[in-house]
Design brief:
Layout: H1 12-16, H2 18-30, H3 37-55, E1 60-66, E2 72-78, H4 83-86, E3 90-92, H5 97-104, E4 108-111, H6 122-127, E5 130-141, E6 144-160, E7 163-167, H7 176-202
Antiparallel strand pairs: 1-2, 1-6, 2-3, 4-5, 5-6, 6-7
Helix pairs in contact: 3-7
């Protein structure tokens, strides 16, 4: 049987009230903060995030949200064992690869990140780990930039003659195909949060 395309049309009364709904949805999205993000996203979003990180071979990942003055990115969620330490970490928008992605809205995939002068080592110093590979994509809510999502592969390094040297086996790193999968997974997360806000706006909870 050939599939038939459904031809759903907006209800005229709902279409007339679309500007009111859009304004209220925008108000709800502005109320999302790093502190309340998990209460809004829910357990399903956390599970999909973890599945996405695992699928691309990441050790862990984080959601970074813009603060209200839009001067910092703040970690609102982390999937790793150091989540209690990492959540709440603030990164100035003037430093680091995550901030560059927030500024340009262009995704990044990079290996041997620890050799990149643009990489901010502040979080690595706090967790006593070294970022080997990183992917970062813009994070949208209701089609507006709210931050970025990053995932990483971690390693340990030592110094020899002033040069960083890996300790143990070198991680596999990320490929361009991993970035495509990562972007798709985060796109699903954005749509789920949009839907939750839509349900909230309609009182459909």
């Amino acid at each position: 049987m050939q599939p038939v395309r459904a031809n759903f049309l907006p209800h005229p009364e709902l279409a007339r009230r679309r500007p009111l709904l859009q304004d209220y949805l925008a108000e709800l999205s502005r109320a999302i903060t790093p502190a309340n993000f998990l209460s809004i996203s829910g357990a399903h979003v956390s599970q999909i995030l973890q599945d996405t990180f695992q699928h691309v071979g990441a050790d862990e990942g984080s959601i970074w949200l813009l603060d209200n003055p839009k001067t910092h990115l703040i970690v609102a969620y982390n999937s790793g064992p150091d989540a209690e330490t990492i959540v709440g970490f603030k990164q100035p928008l003037t430093r680091g690869i995550v901030s560059m992605v927030a500024a340009t809205e262009q995704p990044v995939v990079e290996n041997q990140v620890f050799k990149n002068a643009e990489h901010s080592p502040n979080l690595d110093r706090i967790t006593h780990k070294t970022t080997y590979a990183m992917m970062v994509v813009p994070f949208y809510i209701l089609e507006h930039l709210h931050g970025v999502v990053s995932c990483v592969q971690l390693t340990s390094i030592t110094s020899e003659d002033g040069r960083p040297v890996l300790v143990g086996n070198e991680p596999l790193g990320f490929e361009r195909s991993d970035l495509d999968s990562f972007r798709k997974g985060i796109g699903v997360i954005s749509q789920l949060i949009d839907f939750r806000l839509f349900k909230q706006a309609l009182g459909w909870v």
